[in-house]
Amino acid sequence: MAMEKETLRPQAGSLRILQLCHKPPRPGRDGGCLAMDAMSSGLMALGHRVRILSACTHKHPCDAQLLDSDYVERTGFTGIPIDTRLNAVDALSSLVAGESYNIARFRTPEMLAALRTLLQRVNFDVVLIESLFMAPYLDLIREMSDALVVLRAHNVEHRIWSDLAQTTPGLTRRTYIRLLAKQLESFELGQLNAFDGILAISAEDADAFRELGCTLPIEVVPFGLDLPNHQTPHPTVFPEVFHIGAMDWEPNLRGVRWLVDEVWPLVRESVPHAVLRLAGKAFPTDFQVPEDQGVEVLGELADASTLYARPAIMAIPLLSGSGMRIKAIEGAAAALPIVSTTIGAEGLSPAPPFAIADTPREFADALIADLRCPEVAVERGQAGLAWVDAHYNNPRLVARFADFCLQQLAL
Description:
The chain is α/β, with parallel strands linked by helices. It contains 15 helices and 13 strands. The strands form two sheets. It has a seven-stranded parallel β-sheet, with helices on both faces. A six-stranded parallel β-sheet has the order 10-9-8-11-12-13, sandwiched between helices. β2, α2 and β3 (78-81) form a beta-alpha-beta unit. α10 (250-270) crosses α13 (360-372) and α13 (360-372) crosses α14. The chain starts with 15 loop residues before the first strand and ends with a helix.
């Protein structure tokens, strides 16, 4: 007997939404995971039905032991292992074919089959494609569904790679990365008007998409937090600075190297007992820290909230990238004073109450000022908490996306 499609909505005014993810939203290993999880959790809290189909890669595997049964039942979470590791033959084939290897490695027969099966079973109102990397599945979605298809753009992807190409050492590697950036740009520009709408994570990204020729409806919905779940630290700043970020993302790795090599020695000259702690997954095995400089590599933390709960100064030393810094929102929500580069605070609107510094000397001076004057740092941390509450409240932000979909569907 043929299986009938699920068509009934759970309640009037609700939406049946497929969230197609390039990595599992849980556990929250990085900012992208947190953003996807905040969206699905927020939508379900508003009464919408969410199904999650996710790619699982070597960087972001699916770990069933870390997913509670209620979450799996509510979302119908399905993870499909795909191999996105660098393959010289596939890379060369993409190069010859003139297609983006960054994108092509996410399209697999296994994911296509899982998506086809799901679309055969369920009539979705909305398909939310999380990131450009899942755009190769758009043709199948169009073939099998009349759902509203929205791209959630986590970044202007090709600009990240263009920035990396400019600072990559070695002519051969720099030339190859520049070529990858051009191929990614070609794909991204070609997809801009292929969806029914775009969900931008920042106003700056929305403006960039329009400048690149996007004529689709664009809604700006940044990452948000449920503030009652965040505790405010004791209002004292210890002589401690920390950075948290996934080190398999090149901008993070380069920013941390800049922080350790060029900024931190200046800080230690003025505050000899200051401590710098570095947290995040995928630290390279050859990552070296200077001896007797108070630098500690924590690596990946089982629970990052323990880091945010410590009285400390948060450093965001990004020198490239686009989108918004989710870790900045988390740090501000924890009432921590934050020192950031201009790029590190990019995408945050209105301007956050961070100390902004772009040279090693300026960045060091900002850290030194907070270390020496904790009262001022605490005031800035409290201002950051109020800023998050006013502008990054997750229920309000998710409701904005749901309203956008309802308007587009004329429901």
